[in-house]
Specification:
By secondary structure, this protein is mainly β. The chain folds into three domains: 61 residues, SH3 type barrels, CATH 2.30.30.30; 61 residues, Nucleic acid-binding proteins (OB fold (Dihydrolipoamide Acetyltransferase, E2P)), CATH 2.40.50.140; 58 residues, OB fold (Dihydrolipoamide Acetyltransferase, E2P). The protein has no helices and 17 strands. The chain has a six-stranded antiparallel beta sheet, with no helix packed on it. Strands 9-8-7-11-12-10 form a six-stranded mixed beta sheet, with no helix packed on it. The protein starts with a strand and ends with a strand. 18% of the residues are buried. The mean pLDDT is 88.
């Protein structure tokens, strides 16, 4: 059991049978009245963020989470199949719990968060950025770098991203997996 004094970012708590990650928190001590903790909690299953205020000293049910590295193998009708790189155990994870799944390619490493007591997979996090090859885009023209205009491009995983006009087919680009935005062109 934890109390409101133990709250920290990334902590997982059990509220009414649902798991929530603490996204933000603020300890408030008003001049008059009792202290309290104002939090923003992200639901593990739905991803929705809720605001919740706890009185100081309230006991919370902390959920023990383990982070494990898994390597993506392939996708089938059961979901996305991963292998634990330490034990070589294979698991199948539904696409809804993988953040940035449209940028996942074979051999990529993800960090899987597992409920330690029940061995239930909560979420799978992609790296912050991935490098993918552009498989289709309209050809760029010389001198198209002066404006911030973008065009659609399809990458090797089948996802579509907006890229600057100077990016051509066959080039490798770095993509932010959280919002699907173009970061930079990768040389070599």
């Amino acid at each position: 059991m934890a109390t409101t004094a133990d709250i920290r970012n990334g902590m997982c708590i059990d509220l009414d049978g649902q798991f929530f990650f603490v996204a933000e928190f603020l300890h408030v001590k008003p001049g008059k009245g009792a202290a309290f903790v104002r939090t923003k909690l992200r639901n593990v299953k739905t991803g929705r963020i809720i605001d919740k205020t706890f009185n100081a000293g309230v006991k919370l049910e902390e959920v023990r989470i383990e982070r494990r590295p898994y390597q993506y193998l392939y996708k089938d009708d059961m979901g996305y199949n991963f292998m634990n790189t330490e034990t070589f155990e294979q698991i199948s994870i539904p696409g809804e719990v993988i953040e940035g799944v449209q940028f996942l390619k074979e051999g990529d490493m993800v960090e899987v968060q597992v409920h330690a007591a029940t061995e239930t997979v909560l979420t799978a996090e992609m790296p912050q950025t991935v490098i993918l090859e552009v498989t289709y885009t309209e050809p760029g023209l010389k001198g198209d770098t002066a404006t911030n205009a973008t065009k659609p491009a399809t990458v090797e995983t089948g996802a579509e991203v907006r890229v600057p006009l100077f990016i051509n087919e066959g080039e490798k680009i770095k993509i932010n997996t959280s919002d699907g935005s173009y970061v930079e062109r990768v040389k070599g």
